Automatic annotation (TrEMBL):
It comes from Otolemur garnettii (Small-eared galago). GO terms for biological process: meiosis I. This is Meiotic double-stranded break formation protein 1. The lineage of its organism: Eukaryota, Metazoa, Chordata, Craniata, Vertebrata. PANTHER family: BCL2 INTERACTING MEDIATOR OF CELL DEATH (PTHR12044), MEIOSIS INHIBITOR PROTEIN 1 (PTHR12044:SF10). The gene is MEI1.
Length: 1183
């Protein structure tokens, strides 16, 4: 204690500053380390005495400094000084007015330490109000030295911690400003102006301290105090400081501006318009730094400005600044720091306002890039793995917190996306915002509202929906779902041309179920009313869109659609029950009143739309029971449901019905009564295999509505099924599901085929064609189903009816008659070979021949399938039936006359669409001639053919008419075999003929020139190497040589030995390996061997051929080839050309073992073909 007076005396007397500082340091150390109250009190008393006894405040500087540092070291001394040394304040006030900034700085420092104690501050509140406040502000305003400035600001920071002193200072400042504005400068100053002065200083520390003080004031009440700073234009200078390189100053400025933004005056004085560029540039610069807090504060300020900016004051005055802002937000939202990205998402949400984006041109591509960045960041965060701990409750809590964070971030993202959708909706009414007005007319317009709207739809589909669905699997947040559904609802308006397609996709993705579950789960409590309203609105528009363009059913008339719209609008908000409750309500059999019935309608329509789009969230069995109760209730009350409701009921009953489960007769009866009161069945028809099965499963419904239902079914089938007619060699293609179901029904109820026959006859051509293809396919794939008698009998009735009503002109009876005839041909082809023709078949032959006789050559559509039927009927039965059938057909003189007319058109119309019909006419004529000749049948009408025209057609064949040439050759072969003596066919000359030569007499009616011309024609046709044509050529050449051999053997040998034949033979043999095993070549060689044409085929060459035969695998050859080879072998054997007898015996044994057991003339099932629409028998053309 003895040292204290000594040290204090030294402190007061010494003038060396360094010694003074050392003395103060020693005193502080002694006081704090001894911790003796007596010592402290002694020191305080000495200081107080020194202040009282020192005449000049300059001499008190050391004492004031000591007191300030002592209170700083021992804060409790502040209360003691104020309470026990109260008059000390007067000395401090003297020091403040002393003209020495060093003294003033020490006083301010001591004041600051005193006011740091709440108790001392409360005691000194009166002192501050009455004496210190104005004096202090003026000293702060006039301070020149850094020490005084810092100490004043330190005192101010302490004062601003208390609401009382803030009010005092700001009130004093307000009075000073008002006095100055009225009477001019008053000498008093205000805090805002003082702090503004410090902001304008070039000292960064003072600028930061000033900003901190502004913040300290505003924290107490921005509403009360912000206006004073705004009037002092402080925001202007704060915005300027945002371009500083000091992160602390920028951060401080952000804080001030955030608080100032709570005052509307901040915006009305257009400070934001002035400062928005500084904010954007500051953000752009700061995002390149690593200061996360700075990023967050900057984005928070930007979001506040964007949110609070009045709509009438445009924030972005040019599109370039708007673009820069968008890019800065895009960079911010991509930040890997979640807190920064979160603030960026909030800023983006505020940025997407019409008044912020309406500066032309609207930067749609920039907005799209911004939204893509926001959604990508959200998707990245939502897909990041949860940090799960192995065990314990803590891991569960951490997981829940992580899910909650994800939910909050997703909600913010969706709110931003919703604002983008709202922006697009608002711009729809702005013509200037539809597209960039500065785009050249010829340029591709991508930066348009339409493109932006489609992007929103695509982004929602690809990003928003998957994110929300994944999150909903973990947690369901009502607020999030409310925003999400409102987005979906708005997209219906934004992209109206896609609303139906989008609705279908949503329905197929179980959004009907999702919405109903949300309504049921959050149905109680006012807090969920907004969610329920959004759910109802979304469900209403989605259902209405689905009903406007329904799936596979007729669209509703506008009047009915309006009624359904009103029904859904009133009914959907009332539906908030779970599925079992809704089913129970639907099953109510008691008397149902109007409002309840309307609610039932709504429930049914929702279930219907869900089932149509494969969202089967209701048990089929339970739904079926409920529907039956509903329909019976309607019947009992004498009500008729609206058409759309009944359509829904029928469809749901059909798809809910099990294979073995059948409806009660009462329900089926009720359905039939409802259907009978409907003007057109298409109004309640929905295209589905199970609905078809439903109508065809109940005789009561099938008998009354089967025809119409099947017609509707085929009219709604999108495929034409042409591919089913093109049967690949690998086998039948897989049937579509719908057809497989129909085929199953047809197998179980073949009588339905009769309805299909009626459809072919009476339906529009496109529908009839589909039915024909399907019937053809069914008959081809189901050969075990015996329906030919059923079909032929029904067809006979149709044909009789047609001939009675339209006998004079059957071609005008029905455009579908050719389709029926085509089916009849198929049924005939399906019959087994060599089957006796029954009475029904004979009647059909008569009726079809009568029909043909009433047609003209131009009625190709009718004649072609008719000729096919007649031809197959002749060639697919036993010889006795063939004779009977030919007799029936030959009795039709009109048919024979028609054939004559058609044959006469051969040369003129060989390349026309009637080529196929001409082929059938020649083949049919050939068959008639052969049957009449063999059976010596009565001829009622002869058929004249010009021989010259026939030969000319063979000598000058048309392109791509191989089948026609083969048909004519078949006719000519038959005529040659009959030696031109047919009673049916009369070969007549064409005009004036030259006098016959000596050699012509024996060949009549042929002339030698015609024979040679025919041989040349046959050789030319053989060179074409068409298999069918070659067979016909060889057959005709065989008949010709036989004819010549009988009439003039020399000419026959001459024809067979022509050198040209050798060239022809080797041309054919050059077609490929083992080409000599082709049946046409074998028959040709047999012919040359028979007529001993060694100059054509020598003995050595025959030996080489036989050697090649022995090396070939004969088991792979067709029956036709084996028969031709056997004939060749027998011919060379008979001519003695077999030198190697062992080889001959081996070959003969092999051939006899492989030859079929059936007689050569018998037609096999694969013999009957339809080639290019022409019915042919391969054996008929070949043999």
């Amino acid at each position: 204690l003895s040292y204290l007076p000594l040290l204090q005396g030294l402190l007061c007397t010494v003038e060396d500053g360094s010694v003074t500082d050392l003395c103060i340091e020693v005193l502080i150390q002694l006081t704090t380390q001894l911790k003796l109250e007596q010592t402290i009190h002694c020191l305080l008393d000495e200081c107080h005495k020194e202040l009282c006894n020192t005449p000049s405040m300059r001499g008190s500087l050391a004492t004031l400094t000591l007191l300030g540092k002592l209170v700083d070291a021992i804060p409790a001394l502040a209360d003691e000084l104020v309470m026990e040394h109260g008059n000390l304040m007067e000395h401090l006030l003297r020091g403040l007015v002393y003209p020495s900034e060093g003294v003033q700085a020490s006083v301010c420092y001591l004041y600051g330490k005193l006011y740091s104690s709440p108790m001392a501050a409360e005691i000194l509140s009166g002192h501050f109000r009455e004496k210190l406040c104005p004096l202090f502000l003026s000293i702060l305003d006039g301070a020149q030295t850094k020490e005084l400035q810092f100490n004043c600001l330190g005192l101010l920071r302490q004062l601003l911690k208390y609401d009382l002193f803030v009010s005092m200072i700001m009130n004093k400042s307000a009075l000073a400003e008002s006095a100055e504005s009225i009477a001019g400068p008053s000498g008093e100053t205000s805090l805002p102006l003082v702090l503004k002065k410090l902001l304008l200083s070039r000292d960064e520390t003072l600028q930061v301290a000033s900003a901190h003080c502004i913040t300290a004031v505003l924290v107490h009440s921005p509403v009360k105090h912000a206006s004073a700073f705004i009037h002092a234009d402080i925001p202007e200078f704060l915005f300027e400081h945002l371009s500083s390189s000091s992160e602390v100053l920028i951060w401080s400025s952000y804080n001030c501006l955030i608080l100032l933004a709570e005052e509307p005056l901040f915006f009305s004085k257009c400070h934001t318009v002035y400062g928005i560029e500084a904010v954007v540039r500051s953000l752009q610069g700061n995002l390149k730094m690593n200061n996360t807090e700075l990023h967050k504060q900057g984005l928070l300020l930007f979001a506040e400005i964007l949110t609070r900016q009045p709509e009438e004051i445009k924030l972005f005055t040019n599109s370039a600044m708007c673009r820069d802002a968008s890019r800065a937000l895009q960079e911010a939202v991509s930040s890997p720091v979640l807190e920064v990205a979160t603030e960026a998402v909030k800023a983006i949400s505020a940025f997407l306002r019409k008044d912020h984006q309406s500066t032309p041109p609207v930067q749609y591509r920039e907005l799209q890039a911004l939204l893509e960045a926001m959604l990508s960041r959200c998707a990245e965060f939502s897909q990041s793995p949860l940090n799960r701990r192995p065990l314990g409750h803590a891991s569960s809590r951490d997981s829940e917190k992580a899910i909650l964070r994800r939910g909050r971030f997703l909600l913010s993202t969706l709110e931003g996306f919703r604002n983008a959708c709202r922006l697009a909706m608002e711009f729809q009414s702005e013509p200037s915002a539809q597209e960039n007005p500065f785009t050249a007319p010829s340029a591709k317009k991508e930066d348009t509202l339409e493109a932006f709207s489609e992007f929103l739809l695509s982004a929602c589909d690809c990003l928003c929906i998957p994110m929300v669905m994944r999150h909903s699997e973990q947690a369901t947040h009502p607020a999030l779902m409310e925003v999400f559904l409102s987005i979906l609802h708005s997209l219906f308006v934004i992209v109206p041309h896609m609303k139906e397609k989008f609705s279908k996709k949503l329905a197929a993705s179980s959004f009907i179920r999702l919405t109903l579950e949300l309504k049921a789960r959050f149905r109680s409590g006012p807090s969920y009313s907004a969610l329920n309203q959004v759910c109802s609105s979304f469900l209403f528009y989605m259902c209405l869109n689905l009903l406007s363009v329904p799936e596979k059913t007729e669209p509703l008339p506008q009047e009915e659609l309006s009624e359904v719209s009103e029904l859904l609008q009133h009914g959907l908000p009332q539906i908030s029950s779970r599925i079992p409750e809704s089913l129970a309500f639907l099953s109510d059999r008691q008397y149902v009143e109007g409002a309840a019935r309307q609610k039932q309608y709504c429930i049914l329509l929702i279930f219907y739309l869900a089932y149509v789009h494969e969202d089967r969230f209701v048990s089929e069995a339970e739904l079926s029971v409920a529907l039956q109760s509903f329909l019976l209730s309607m019947q009992n009350q004498g009500e008729r449901p609206p058409l759309v409701v009944f359509r829904a009921s029928i469809y749901l009953l059909a798809v809910c019905q099990d294979g073995d489960c059948t409806l009660d007769e009462a329900v089926v009866g009720a359905i039939r009564k409802f259907l009978e009161n409907i003007p057109d069945l298409c109004l309640v028809y929905t295209h589905h295999p199970l609905l078809l099965n439903f109508f065809l499963s109940y005789p009561e419904l099938m008998s009354r509505f089967g025809h119409h239902i099947l017609e509707l079914w085929f009219s709604w089938e999108e495929s034409s099924y042409e591919e089913l007619d093109d049967v690949p060699s690998a086998g039948e293609p897989m049937l579509p599901t719908s057809l497989a179901s129909l085929f199953q029904i047809l197998r179980s109820s073949p009588s339905i085929l009769l309805i299909l026959l009626d459809l072919i006859y009476s339906s529009p051509v496109d529908i009839a064609h589909k039915v024909l293809i399907i019937l053809r396919t069914f008959l081809r794939r189901n050969e075990d189903v015996q329906v030919s008698g059923l079909i032929r009998g029904h067809f006979l009735l149709i044909l009789k009816h047609l001939l009675v009503e339209h006998g004079a002109s059957p071609s005008g009876a029905s455009r579908n008659l050719p389709l029926l005839l085509s089916l009849l041909s198929l049924v005939q082809l399906r019959n087994e070979s060599k089957q006796e023709l029954d009475s029904m078949a004979m009647k059909l032959l008569h009726q079809v021949s009568t029909l043909c006789g009433k047609c003209s050559p131009t009625d190709v559509d009718i004649l072609q399938p008719s000729f096919n039927f007649l031809y197959w009927s002749l060639h697919q039965t036993t010889p006795s039936s063939q004779k009977r059938a030919a007799a029936v057909l030959l009795s039709s003189t009109a048919l024979i006359e028609l054939l004559e007319k058609l044959l006469a058109l051969t040369l003129t119309e060989a390349d026309s669409p009637r080529t196929a019909l001409l082929c059938s006419a020649w083949l049919l004529t050939t068959s008639f001639s052969a049957q009449q000749y063999d059976g010596n049948l009565q001829v009622h009408q002869t058929l004249s053919v010009e021989l010259d025209q026939v030969l000319k057609a063979l000598s000058f064949p048309k392109k791509k008419a191989a089948l026609l040439s083969a048909s004519i050759l078949c006719f000519l072969r038959t005529a040659l075999q009959q030696s031109f003596s047919s009673a049916l066919v009369a070969l007549v000359p064409s005009g004036a003929q030259p006098l016959p030569g000596p050699k012509d007499t024996n060949l009549a009616p042929l002339r030698i020139s015609q024979v040679l011309s025919l041989v040349i024609g046959l050789q030319n046709l053989l060179v074409q190497k068409d298999p069918l044509l070659s067979q016909a050529c060889v057959g005709c050449l065989e008949a010709l040589l036989d004819y010549l051999h009988v009439r003039s053997p020399d000419i026959a040998l001459h024809v067979a030995s022509q050198p040209w034949n050798r060239f022809l033979l080797f041309t054919l043999l050059d077609a490929g390996e083992n080409s000599f095993l082709r049946p046409d070549i074998l028959r040709l060689m047999t012919l040359f061997v028979r007529y001993q044409s060694s100059n054509i085929l020598s003995h050595e060459e025959v030996g080489h051929i036989l050697q090649g035969v022995t090396l070939a695998d004969l088991s792979t050859l067709s029956n036709t080839t084996l028969q031709a080879l056997h004939s060749f072998f027998l011919q060379i054997q008979s001519k003695g050309l077999l030198a190697d007898h062992s080889m001959a015996q081996t070959l003969q044994a092999s051939l006899e073992g492989l030859l079929p057991s059936a007689p050569l003339g018998q037609a096999l099932p694969q013999d009957m073909l339809c080639l290019g629409g022409v019915a042919i028998s391969l054996s008929h053309i070949r043999d």
